[in-house]
Structure formats: C-alpha cells, structure tokens
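G., the chain you wanted modeled:
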Amino acid sequence: MAVPGDKWPSKQAFHALALTGGGFRGLFSAQVLASIEEATNQPVGQHFDLICGTSIGGIVAIAAAFEVPMAKVVEVFASRGPSIFPSNRRAPTGPVASKVDLAKHVGKPRYSTAPLRQAIEDLIPRNTLLGEAVHPLAIPAVNLTQGSPQVFKTHHKPEWQRDSKLAVVDIALATAAAPTFFELAEIGGDRYADGGLFANAPDQIALHEAEHYFGVQPESFRLLSVGTTTKSYSVAHSAGREFGIGNWMKDARLFSVMISAQQQFVGQLMTHRLGDRYVRIDREPSHEQAEEL
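Predicted structure as tokens:
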C-alpha cells in the first residue's frame, strides 16, 4: 500500500480503482467487486492504494474504502432500488408519457432523496466521517455555490483536514445529486450536483491524484476501471436537427450522450497513457437489455 506523500520507486506498483456513474446500473459495478471479493476472500479495498468513484460509483467506492462487503452493497441497492427509482405503472407510455413526465417535473426533481439516503445509511452509519475511511478516497462533485468542480478527498497530504471532518453520507449524496433526478445536496452551506457532470468516469482523477499527490511515477501506475453497462449512444437521422428542451430531455437523451461520449473519450486517453496497465471492465447491453435497464 502507498503512503500519502511518499515518493514511490518506479519498480513498485500503485493500484487504483475507478468506478463510473450510471444510476441503478451501478449494481453491475458492485457485482463485479463482489465477485472479486468472493474470489480473493478479502475486502476489495485492500487491493488498492486509491479508490475513486462518481455518483453511484462514488457510493460503491465509499463502501469499498470502508470495507463494507460488496455482497451487502448489491443486496441493499437491489432491494431498495425500486424505492429510490419508483416507476408509475399507471402512467401513459410513448410520446404522451414523455410530455407528461416533462410537465410534471418542470419545477422539481423526479425522485425523493430520502430513499437514497436510507440506502447509503444501510451501508455506512449516519455520523461516519470521511477521515475514518480505511483506504484513500477521491469523490468528485460540482460545487454550484462556488461554481467549480470539487473532489472530496481523504488526507492524502497531512495538511488536508477539511474533507476529513465531513459526513460520508453527505458526500455520497453530493456526488449522486443528478440534475433533474434528485435535489441538490448541501454541505457546509454549499450546494452540490452530481460529479458526473465533469467526471462520470473518474479514471483521470485517479491518475492525477496518484502522480500529483502520492508522487507515483507513471510507469508504476495501474488502474482498474469498472463501468455500469455503458452503451454508446447515437441519434437516428430521422429525429431531425431542431432539438429543443423536450427532445434533449426525452428518455434522458442529454445525459446518455454526455455519459457515453465522456466514457469513450476517457477510455481512449487512459489506454494511450497506460497501455496494458489500464484494465476496463464493462459490458455493453443488447438493445433489449438496454431498454430494460
């Protein structure tokens, strides 16, 4: 394991884990890590010198850093998923449904944060502080009060103290505060939105933290990146060119484009930088599977 601030010799490997955002599909990431734990009979956090995660990936990353069994993470989100993302089976479907949904949520988010908070607290006790993490963490969010991206971190450097005193559940809600889906999170008077707005795939954050704050040489860095069944997203030519708010928000089209393009770009960069020292675990679903997801 790395010691924050120490200069590592190039022959010694530094292992990082990066977990992508993706809503309920984060169950895929949690199941991958649960399989690793089953195979190694060890908490997955013990295999990494740094853990990064965004949105649902941030919640799973926090659990890994506190050595919460990944099987429990899978169980909690599988059981609480329907209450976090409730569906209205009586609602109309098709184009009418999209219009009704947009009109209904013009002035408020789609889902209540309360069930998500409860799920997080099922994994991490309510008053747990970031400074109590067993393994180093880096969790991105967008500070809308300050108008800037922010990465919540454990004390990679001894002089860092601010984030260590923050409640883990608040950080988890901040990184997962997806626009239009959940209300903004609030920490210390500042309000936050989902870290996926700038780092849905936090692979680059992991690399930067390792090189800049841990003093890791590039050739020593190893990264395991786990996705959320990320699917490439394209728009049919028949959809035309005059996209308005309704077109972009239909079926979360805007977010699908952002997530897909960002993940593919980051994956290319990491592959170029790291070569075979970068491993990406993901699975693109079929059309039918994607519809169900």
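The chain is about 40% helix and 15% strand.

Shout if anything looks off.
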